[in-house]
Design a protein that fits this description.
The complex is a heterodimer of chains A (378) and B (64).
Chain A (H helix, E strand, L loop, with lengths): L2 H33 L1 H8 L16 H11 L4 E7 L5 E7 L10 E6 L5 E2 L6 H13 L3 H30 L13 H15 L1 H15 L1 H12 L1 H8 L10 H11 L3 E7 L10 E8 L8 E7 L5 E4 L4 H14 L5 H28 L5 H13 L1
Antiparallel strand pairs in A: 1-2, 1-5, 2-3, 3-4, 5-6, 6-7, 7-8
Helix pairs in contact in A: 1-4, 1-5, 1-12, 5-7, 6-12, 7-11
Chain B lengths: L11 H24 L4 H9 L1 H11 L4
Classes of the chains: A alpha+beta (378), B mainly alpha (64).
């Protein structure tokens, strides 16, 4: 590689890294507890709850809905979701179907008795805080997009780092760490080794992280482009006072999409539906397809199915980016490996800063030689 | 061109041979974990973490 080429890549590596390092350190540190989100939740909230009649018949979704609405006079239903491993239905209500999240009320009901299920949310606020910091630094969409840009810089720093790996390793065997030379040379070798062996993970987590920051634009595009005709065709559908059975609507949706599981229902007027339909969201039941959602629109007055639509490719990409970013898809061992790789990335970032500081910048070659010889003499 | 053997410059092929293998193995483990369920998860997670094994191996080497 020509000296000029190396110099160009060094410039790219230095500046892309310097700009994003502080944010990447924050992301890596907040990412550590997020890897074990499920385990921390489970440890703080021991599963002591039991259904009232474990073997008894289940209430219908319509009955649960009536109970939930009786508990919240004057409110309307917004969402209904379903626990996977216990007979529990969660109902979100609010003063209106398009109420903001802060005005919504969330309650869980025992499907075997209709009794309220106590919320298991010990420690939830701390994890929420960490997740929010990690996602958008409490700045909403601009914060998310900013972190996405930092992710792109980080990927550029990674690519330039791989290119620069070659000239540094020209005279060294793979895995060489010159421990007995200066501290700077030792950390340069560690930086190169740790960086190059974690490359696949860093690229996967970095790229999926960038995709995740586009969540809101992607979902908006899906709603306005792909679902627009479905919603427009049905937007003017009149909703009288008669109500179709929710349970039958759900059963019909599940019948139309075999091999899919019920995920949640959005009620008429809510952000994920039309003014006259239940949007019933189903997801696949294999490890790959469980992240892929298919919505079914059912008229809330007549119970007729109005349309079913698969996700477009970009929404699928977003759905698959979530598990690949958080590492919560392959069991506990994968999470531990995720944790260790995250720690190694922190070392790579910190050693990069150290190498930049100890070099004293390319502008002061004399000083950097002095640092090097001084360090070697110790 | 009579350099001492340990200092002979290596070509890109040799420099990137092991990193490329680790990259492919780790990437396969990361992606395939998404498709599997049950016991293969453990094998695939170990493949995904093959870089960690490479670090441990290199730390165990005694070099000057």
């Amino acid at each position: 590689m020509k000296t000029a080429t190396i110099r160009t890549w060094s410039w790219v590596h230095k500046w892309t890294s310097l700009v994003c390092t502080l944010f990447l350190l924050m992301l890596c540190v907040t990412g550590l507890p997020l890897v074990f989100h499920d385990e921390i939740d489970a440890a703080l909230n021991p599963a002591t709850w039991q259904p009232a009649n474990p073997d008894g018949p289940h209430l219908t979704y319509d009955e649960v809905l009536s109970i939930a609405l009786a508990e919240r006079p004057g409110e309307v239903p917004i969402f209904m979701s379903f626990d996977i491993d216990r007979p529990v239905v969660n109902v979100t209500t609010g003063p209106s179907a398009d109420a903001p999240g802060s005005a919504m009320h969330f309650a869980s009901y025992d499907l075997t008795s209709g009794a309220l299920v106590p919320p298991a949310d010990t420690g939830e606020s701390v994890m929420e805080f960490i997740l929010q910091l990690h996602t958008d630094m409490f700045l909403g969409l601009p914060g998310m997009l900013f972190l996405g840009f930092m992710g792109i810089l980080f990927l550029a720093a990674t690519v330039s780092g791989v290119v620069l790996y070659a000239p540094f390793m020209r005279k060294l065997d793979f895995g060489t760490v010159r421990r007995r030379q200066s501290s700077r040379i030792k950390w340069l070798d560690y930086h190169n080794l740790l960086g190059i062996v974690t490359l696949a993970w860093v690229v996967v987590v970095g790229a999926t992280g960038v995709i995740n920051t586009l969540e809101q634009p992607i979902i908006d595009t899906w709603r306005t482009q792909e679902l627009a005709d479905l919603v427009a065709d049905n937007q003017n559908a009149e909703l009288g006072t008669a109500r179709a059975s929710l349970a039958e609507a759900v059963a019909e949706a599940v019948r139309l999409a075999p091999d899919m599981q019920l995920q949640f229902v959005a009620f008429p007027g809510s952000g994920f539906s039309t003014s006259a339909h239940f949007s019933i969201f189903l997801h696949g039941d294999t490890p790959l397809t469980e992240n892929l959602i298919t919505p079914v629109l059912v008229h809330a007055g007549t119970g007729e199915v109005a349309g079913i639509r698969e996700m477009p490719w970009y929404a699928k990409a977003l759905s698959l980016s979530r598990p690949l970013h958080f590492g919560d898809y392959g069991g506990l061992l994968l999470k531990i490996i995720w944790f260790v790789l995250d720690l190694i990335t922190i070392i790579v970032l910190a050693s990069g800063v150290y190498l930049w500081l100890s070099k004293g910048g390319a502008r002061r070659p004399a000083a950097s030689t002095a640092t090097l010889t001084g360090a070697s003499a110790q | 061109m009579t350099r001492p053997a340990p200092n002979r410059p290596r070509g890109a092929q040799r420099i990137f041979a092991i990193p490329a293998v680790l990259f492919v193995i780790s990437l396969f483990g990361l992606v395939a974990s998404l498709l599997s369920d049950g016991w293969p998860d453990i094998v695939l997670a170990l493949l995904a973490g093959s870089g960690i094994a490479a670090i441990v191996w290199s730390l165990l080497q005694r070099r000057p």
